[in-house]
Design a protein that fits this description.
- There is one protein chain.
- With about 120 residues, this protein is mainly beta.
- It contains no helices and eleven strands.
- Strands 2, 4, 5, 6, 9, 10 and 11 form a seven-stranded mixed sheet that branches.
- A hairpin with a 4-residue loop joins strand 7 and strand 8.
- The mean pLDDT is about 90.
């Protein structure tokens, strides 16, 4: 099986920044897209962004455009989510996930990490 492990979450003040990391192991991830999702208490899981393995293009939800940046290091099988200008509404458990094609639909993501908590205080 493929294991995805997120790290880097924590508590920050509004306006601050965090960088989340996602480490993949168990197999190679050739041409897999990697996505970031989040789930706030009492809410459905929400698409944050995705980055392609084949083209290196990243796409974002409107709610995070201009504030969040996804990057990757294929040699390390690592994906990152740089979060700037954080808002209290960004508070959620953040998950990384792997899909075989670019998608903003969580149903297309086959493998999921355990999540890392991000809390943004007002």
């Amino acid at each position: 099986q493929v294991q995805l492990v997120e790290s880097g979450g924590g508590l920050v003040q509004a306006g601050g920044s965090l960088r989340l990391s996602c480490a993949a192991s168990g197999r190679t991830f050739s041409n897999y897209a990697m996505g970031w999702f989040r789930q706030a208490p009492g809410k459905e899981r929400e698409f944050v962004g995705t980055i392609t393995w084949s083209g290196g293009s990243a796409y974002y939800a409107d709610s995070v455009k201009g504030r969040f940046t996804i990057s990757r290091d294929n040699a390390k099988n690592m994906v990152y989510l740089q979060m700037n200008s954080l808002k209290p509404e960004d508070t959620a458990v953040y998950y990384c996930a792997a899909a075989q094609a670019d998608s903003n639909n969580d149903a297309d993501y086959r493998y999921w990490g355990q999540g890392t908590q991000v809390t943004v205080s007002a």
